[in-house]
Amino acid sequence: MGDTVVNTDVKQVGSENALVIAVSHGAVFGAEDEDVHGVAFPLLQAVQKVNERLQQLKSSDSEPVQLEVVLICTNRAQQQQRDQVQTRTRAQGLQIHKFSFSCEDDFTDSLLENKVHLFLTTNSDEATQAANKGVLSAVLDPESACGPSEKLRIMFCGDAISDPGAESMSGSRQAKQVFWSHLGKIRQKFGVEDSPLTLVLLSSHGGIDGCCSALRSLRTAGLNVDEAYCLGGSPRKLIMSVLRPHFLLGAPEE
């Protein structure tokens, strides 16, 4: 069983009002002994922008919500250098709510213990382990995940939503519904203009009917996207470089 350390430097939120995102240490940082930024670094900066805006709305909001970040550390050196891990994130200006220290074999127990809604990693084996435990998971691709640090951009694979059998990285259907619902509530806090959170639907292989079906599924769960694209079989790599999402949920391999 892993050990979770609460970061007292960051204001905590009630679990019932938090959308909990867990990110692997390796996705946030590069080399162990260097201050190298990993693919998830700008993602966490963008998450902080969303939370800052939510905090501004809190005084007049009857139902406050927030994104909570859990850093998952499975490396043996990280286990032995807990203080250094926390100091490093503080020095980098990252607001991590909790640190979870566990071994590679039981880190999924920590995901369940912390009621994680989404697990992000650069390791496909870790994503598969989490998905097998029913935790919604996604692999961060350094080549395509290049979202800006000032706005959180989340992309959904319309093909996987309209045809669940096409989805390669998943969790349980219930986990997806819960994530969509929580995320939808957060997006509703902001207007159409100047939102720190943008939700995008991308359908690569299906036609317009499949895209519309995916939109209906998301809306039924309480989530409305800001942008929707139907590629009709064209490769998604080029448009991904233009749209610049931080991650793509439910995408099968091309």
Automatic annotation (TrEMBL):
It holds the Pfam family 5-nucleotidase. This is Cytosolic 5'-nucleotidase 1A-like. It comes from the Eukaryota. GO terms for molecular function: 5'-nucleotidase activity; magnesium ion binding; nucleotide binding. InterPro entries: 5-nucleotidase (IPR010394). GO terms for cellular component: cytosol. One of its GO terms (biological process) is adenosine metabolic process.
